[in-house]
Amino acid sequence: MRFSRVSVFSAAAAAVAATSLSVLFSRATFHQAAMATQKGSTHVADAIKDVEVETVRGASDSNYVKVGSFWQDQTVVIHILRRFGCKLCRYNALELQKIVPTLEDHNVRIIAIGIEKLGLKEFQDGGFWNGELYIDNGKKIHNALSIKSVGILNSFKMLYDIRDALKKANDVSGNLKGDGRQLGATFVIAKGGTMLMDFRQKDFADQPSLESILEACGVDRKDYPSNLNTESERLVCD
């Protein structure tokens, strides 16, 4: 049986295309972070305690502080933002602010950490987060804990899957500036470095409930704020 050069070339091209798509898909699906650590473990604290983050708004005047200082004297909630311009990140930061007064009343420190300065001014001007804020230049925390980025193909699928979450943040402004494929995390670490909650995103909309954070911090349910089930005020920043 004879094959024309055209048919042979077409078959080869199809094989290359199929292989390329397979590689891209495998990279896209390999986006989840390493398995979350068990409650009571000090693995996360040990891995990131010496990471230095840049102070945007902090408890001291130091330009850089070590992450380990956050849980030196008290329990801390560490919320690692994906991207300052992300609509969902802004919306979730607004949601998280609902429990800040309650956490402070129970001597729990709460901190937000961004991965880059791009979009920082808009984030601050919009009032999306009014608490302590730091920048992890170079994503050292992500590297230490193997918190992965989302693959190209899977990122498009996620945008479809999270459409309901995007509707909730419809009136919150956002943009596409920055690293849009990096996932985030939320940790609750007790004084001394013991893990109380290790939550790592599986998609862009994945967030721990406010109730789960309060529970991890040991807050009695009778002390939960009354606004947990009300939607945050919508903020629009030019």
TrEMBL record:
Enzyme Commission number: 1.11.1.20
A GO BP annotation: fatty acid metabolic process
EC class (word): oxidoreductase
Pfam families: AhpC-TSA_2
Cell location: Cytoplasm, Cytosol
DNA repair keyword on record: no
Catalytic activity: prostamide F2alpha + [thioredoxin]-disulfide = prostamide H2 + [thioredoxin]-dithiol; prostaglandin H2 + [thioredoxin]-dithiol = prostaglandin F2alpha + [thioredoxin]-disulfide
Main location group: cytoplasm
Record SUPFAM superfamilies: Thioredoxin-like
Keywords: Cytoplasm, Fatty acid metabolism, Lipid biosynthesis, Lipid metabolism, NADP, Oxidoreductase
Source species, domain of life: Eukaryota
GO CC terms, sorted: cytosol
GO molecular function: oxidoreductase activity
InterPro entries found in the cross-reference section: PXL2A/B/C, Thioredoxin-like_sf
Family recorded in the similarity comment: Belongs to the peroxiredoxin-like PRXL2 family. Prostamide/prostaglandin F synthase subfamily.
Protein purpose: Catalyzes the reduction of prostaglandin-ethanolamide H(2) (prostamide H(2)) to prostamide F(2alpha) with NADPH as proton donor. Also able to reduce prostaglandin H(2) to prostaglandin F(2alpha).
Full protein name: Prostamide/prostaglandin F synthase
Organism of this sequence: Ceratopteris richardii (Triangle waterfern)
